[in-house]
Specification:
globular, 4-stranded parallel sheet, alpha/beta
Length: about 200
């Protein structure tokens, strides 16, 4: 219902289990697949792995895994299987739509709490070797926003914390990514950790 209410998205198929998902995706060739983790037959992690392997490398479907279970094992397994995003089912409608648009455009997305844990796992195993020179190009407010992104806050939460509009937060995030030469929000969090900001 959420997706059908938009002008730029079309739901081309639905499936109630992992194997059916593969069949429907093979018939409809979707750009984005919203995948549940726990399904009859094969689970969403294995379905994601098979889905990515079964399609041509130049046009694999982008998979967003949706789950009620905020567990590390699902996050890591899902991303290793090739998922482009990982959201909790309690995500707001707007966050879901934004995520679909983002992964369709080639970006990765993750729920803020998931992002924080992924980055903490990453920085625990990677050295802090990043050029911090570009940080000097950020305004004081942009640095504030970057620090809050690194803490795992959503745009809405950042807006509330800084008492600015969510639109203004989005503008700051876009400028931060451009100034630091980063692809997406997850990379911004990693950069913040590697540079010692978080």
């Amino acid at each position: 219902m959420i997706l059908d209410g938009t002008d730029d998205m079309l739901v081309v198929g639905e499936a109630a289990d992992g194997l059916k998902t593969l069949a429907v995706a093979g018939e409809t060739r979707p750009d984005v697949v919203l995948m549940d983790v726990r399904m009859p037959g094969i689970d969403g992690i294995e379905a994601t792995r098979r889905l990515r392997a079964a399609h041509p490398p130049d046009h694999p479907p982008h998979v967003i895994i949706l789950t009620t279970f905020d567990l590390d094992e699902y996050v890591y397994a899902g991303l290793r299987a090739g998922a482009a995003g990982f959201l909790l089912k309690d995500s707001l409608d707007g966050e879901l739509l934004q995520a679909v648009r983002a992964v369709a455009g080639g970006h990765n997305v993750a729920a803020p709490t998931v992002t924080r844990r992924l980055v903490q796992h990453f920085v625990a195993t990677a050295p802090r070797t990043v050029d911090t020179t570009p940080l000097g190009a950020l305004t004081a407010r942009e640095r504030d926003v970057l620090e809050l992104i690194a803490q795992g806050l959503s745009n809405q939460e950042i807006a509330g914390r800084l008492m600015i509009s969510e639109g203004t937060v989005k503008t700051h995030v876009s400028r931060i990514l451009a100034k630091l030469g980063l692809r997406d929000r997850i990379h911004a969090v990693i950069y913040a950790y590697q540079s010692g900001m978080a």
